[in-house]
Known about the structure:
It is a single chain. It contains 3 helices and 3 strands. With 90 residues, it is of the alpha+beta class. A 3-stranded antiparallel sheet has the order 1-2-3, with helices on both faces. Helix 1 runs antiparallel to helix 2. The longest helix has 20 residues. The relative contact order is 0.16.
Amino acid sequence: MTRIWSFIAERNEDAADRVEQAIYDACAFVAESAMRGHSRTDLTARSLRLWTLTRYSNYSIAYRPETAPIQVVAVLHGKRNIRRILKQRP
């Protein structure tokens, strides 16, 4: 999260704060019902779910729905190599 905030804040700190809050809000939202989002078998064979932020659709949260509480594996920007990132994350 710090890298995302820092990257955006180089141009606009207020925007960075809004994106950061939207990410936290999305994490809380999926935590309420762990099966929100969708699986992406084209990106990973793991039992991860992805939730795309409504307001900032370039960002998605990858999480493990079977853990309690959910475990966020990554916050991903759509222009990154998501398959590679998910492969590298435990």
